[in-house]
Design goal:
This protein has 205 residues and is an all-beta fold. It contains no helices and 16 strands. Strands 1, 2, 3, 4, 5, 6, 9, 10 and 11 form a nine-stranded antiparallel beta sheet that branches. A five-stranded antiparallel beta sheet has the order 12-13-14-15-16, with no helix packed on it. It has a two-stranded antiparallel ribbon with strand order 7-8. Strand 5 and strand 6 form a beta hairpin. It is globular and about 55 Å long.
């Protein structure tokens, strides 16, 4: 029998064929994102049950930015659920977010006001909105000397060790393209996120 563990493992790969338009204090970046969903058996074996794809959009104007994902899988799961075969006589359903725009985040760094919309799985589309005060410097990056070129962008490596002493983020960013935020609630980098991995949640960008 399969047991679905929603938070156990999923990967988020950002294929950074970035479409960058930089003009004065404005920036636009497009991401291609793939997310894999897994179940785990009673024996602890992981099984891939679905791959979800998204287009990601990042817009920045002066000291404000907004990021959101546009899901491309909605036509494949019109009822908001993925059928998972447990055995010949048992099929379980796993909900997926069905909003046409997802993972929406807006931050104004002048007023330090942030707004986010969190997605709820299933066909009801009952996400909820949150408004709060933005706390700058919440991620303490360690900037490393490693460098490499990714898709024509000269990138530098950085990492973040969280408050529990665990390595959480390894990222590659391009300092030639300054940006305030990016996917995965990342802020505080002196350049656009080009490649990254969250070691805690197994997310890859």
């Amino acid at each position: 029998m399969y047991k679905y563990v929603q938070s156990l493992s999923y990967s988020l790969l950002t294929l950074l064929g970035l479409c960058l338009q930089v003009n004065a204090q404005t920036l636009e970046a497009h991401y291609k994102i793939f997310q894999s969903l897994y179940t785990t058996t009673e024996n602890g074996i992981l099984k891939n049950i679905a791959n979800l794809d998204f287009d990601g959009f990042l817009y920045q104007q002066k000291n404000r930015f907004i990021y959101f994902n546009r899901p491309l899988y909605l036509d494949r799961y019109p009822d908001g659920y993925i059928d998972v075969t447990v055995d010949e006589n048992n099929i379980t359903k796993i909900g997926v977010p069905m909003d046409s725009l997802q993972d929406i985040r807006y931050v104004d760094f002048d007023s330090l006001i942030s707004r986010s919309r969190f997605d709820i799985t299933g066909p009801e589309n009952r996400g909820f909105n949150v408004k709060g005060n933005w706390k700058s410097g919440r991620i303490k990056w360690q900037f490393l000397s490693d460098s490499k070129e990714i898709n024509g962008l000269k990138c530098q490596k950085a990492q973040w060790v969280n408050a529990n002493g665990k390595l959480q983020w390894i990222v590659w960013f391009c300092p030639d393209v300054p940006v305030l935020g990016g996917p995965g609630y990342i802020t505080g980098l002196p350049g656009i996120l080009v490649e990254g991995e969250n070691k805690i949640t197994n997310e890859k960008y």
